Amino acid sequence: MSVFSERLKELRKEQNLTQQELADKLGINRCNITNWECGNRETNFKMLIQLADMLNVSTDYLLGREVDMITFSEQLKKYRTKKGLTQKELAEQIGIKQNSYSDWETGKNEPSLDNIVKLAKIFDTTTDDLLGIKNT
């Protein structure tokens, strides 16, 4: 079974969704979900993006390209302190509670893709840099 298949199934179950419920949300047949989770078929690019958005993860994560959350947490704290912001001030700018932001900075939780984009804009950097992804 591929990393994609394993992660799709794991993420679906974490969100307490049946295959049918996920298929309904995506507007597709349940057989597609079954085939992807069993590794019988691969999804197309458009559906991969929809799945990542629906499951609140990156396409890289779904495909097995992991982002080191320790690096992300360190980057997040570095940028916040460089801007001279408290956790509370930054959380307010993003529109979330301080404890939610604190969980990101300690690596206990991950922000949504929308929030990563917001953070990158606030810090005037790229999402790749914020996530610790180096271009080679």
How many individual helices? 10
CATH architecture of the largest domain: Orthogonal Bundle
Give the class from helix and strand content and strand pairing: mainly alpha
Number of strands: 0
CATH topology of the largest domain: 434 Repressor (Amino-terminal Domain)
Helix content: 55-70%
Order of helices and strands: HHHHHHHHHH
User: How large is the share of residues in beta strands?
Assistant: under 5%
Mean pLDDT: 88
- Biggest pleated sheet: none
Query: Could you list the spans in which at least 5 consecutive residues all have pLDDT below 50?
Result: none
CATH class of the largest domain: Mainly Alpha
Tell me the overall shape: elongated
CATH superfamily of the largest domain: lambda repressor-like DNA-binding domains
Count structural domains. Answer: 2
Spatial separation of the terminal alpha carbons: 29 Å
Work out the radius of gyration. 17 Å
